[in-house]
Amino acid sequence: MDCDPETRVDLHIHSTASDGTLTPWEILTEARNRRLGAISITDHDTLDGNQEALRIGIPDALNFITGVEISCESPPFFPCAGSMHVLGYGIDVRDAAMLEALSSLQTSRKDRNPKILQRLNALGIRITEAELATEAGNGQIGRPHIGAALVRKGVVGSIDEAFDRFLGNGRPAYVDKYRIPCASAIRLIRDAGGVAVLAHPGLLRSTNGALLETVMADFVHMGLCGIEVHYPEHTTADTARFSAIADRHRLLVTGGTDFHGAIKPGLRMGDAGGDFHVPFHLYDALRQACRKQTS
Ligand code: AMP
Ligand code: ZN
Ligand code: FE
Ligand code: FE
Predict the structure, then answer these.
(1) In angstroms, what is the span from residue 292 Cα to ligand 1's centroid?
(2) Cα separation of 14 and 261, whole Å?
(3) How far is CA 50 from CA 20, 91, 97, 136, in A?
(4) What three-state secondary structure class fits 17?
(5) From CA 74, how far away is CA 227, in angstroms rounded?
(6) How far, in Å, from the CA of 67 to the mean position of ligand 2?
(7) Given the CA of residue 177, which atom of ligand 1 is nearest to it?
(8) What pLDDT digit, counting tens, does each position of 19-68 carry?
(9) pTM of the full structure
(10) CA distances from 216 to 10, 11, 210, 219, 268 (A)
(11) Which listed residue, of 189, 235, 261, 262, carries a Cα 20 to 30 Å from 138's Cα?
(12) CB-hemisphere CA count at 13 Å for 42?
């Protein structure tokens, strides 16, 4: 279905399959109610939410592109302190190699959660695995769920505070997890018929002083096709900077709110306030790039 090129879209959304609070059905309904032109569900390390959305059926008036947000290990030329996430769009949600790789990431999450709870326990904060399971439902458990449990217990006032005091990198309950090397994630995405996009570059801080400007060619060499220019936490200067990088390397420009429902308050699907606006023509270009990739 075609839309006006300026119609709003949201290409970065989490469902209950990972650490979002809306089910795939609720996401499709909300996207329709908000008259978005297109969406992508981009859960952390799982395609379960996409499979469910496709099973339910995409409403006629909405465009949908499959998605995933893969937890990656940053490459040696750009070691990062922040979360290196690679988005994969337009992938086959039944691709065996992709599902196998995601399954190993899911196992590493399962191994990590008890270790985080042990660290909290050592700090005198007791959260049981059963309590954590209540926060997460059937989805992949992430640190935001542990943050939500800490809020529920009254240990902290917000999930942000939980990250600042306990769960963030370098904080006392932080535990690292296995991540897929960037190059492998990009390869898996391409082999599954999709295009790979660097998520929220504004959140990345290289620990060796390298700037994205100087290493982008290396990412492109790995097969990266796009960059998430539009992101709520990007400043106007960030957005201009990442647009220039996209122009220079002829990359796709994408964007989304990183909607997580109640776990990340203050955002609405497709709308992060101010002049944040991801237009339909960016979705259209992404869709066409996926077609090229598979043809
Ligand atoms: P995990 O997949 O368990 O490593 O958790 C990643 C999720 O934690 C992402 O959805 C982020 O939005 C969220 N997150 C990471 N750092 C922070 C932070 N400092 N404050 C709030 N949320 C965060
Ligand atoms: Zn998340
Ligand atoms: Fe992310
Ligand atoms: Fe995300």
Answers:
(1) 33
(2) 8
(3) 13, 10, 17, 18
(4) coil
(5) 15
(6) 14
(7) 4
(8) 999 999 999 999 999 999 999 999 999 999 999 999 999 999 999 999 99
(9) 0.97
(10) 24, 22, 10, 5, 31
(11) 189
(12) 30
Q: Which of 63, 24, 88, 70 is nearest to 279 (CA)?
A: 63
Say what the pLDDT of residue 2 is: 86
DSSP H stretches of helix in the chain: 24-33, 48-56, 96-122, 129-136, 143-152, 159-162, 182-191, 212-222, 236-249, 280-294
Residue 294 and residue 241: Cα distance in Å, rounded?
30
**DSSP string for 235-276:** -HHHHHHHHHHHHHHT-EEEE---B-GGGSTT-BTTB-STT-
Is 29 strand, coil or helix? helix
The crossing angle, in degrees rounded to 10, of helices 129-136 and 96-122 is: 130
- Any residues with Cβ below 6 Å from ligand 1, and which? 19, 44, 83, 142-144, 159-160, 163, 168
Q: What residues of the chain score a pLDDT lower than 50? A: none
Closest-CA residue, ligand 1 atom 13, reads 144
43 Cα–ligand 4 center, Å: 7
Cα(246)–Cα(177) distance, integer angstroms: 30
Q: How far is CA 289 from the centre of its chain?
A: 20
Burial 235-271 (b: 16+ CB within 10 A, else e): eeebbebbeebbeebebbbbbbbbbbbebbeebebbb
pLDDT at 295: 56
Q: What is the DSSP letter of 8?
A: B
What letter would DSSP give residue 175? -
The pLDDT value given to residue 291? 81
Six token digits for residue 43: 């859960």
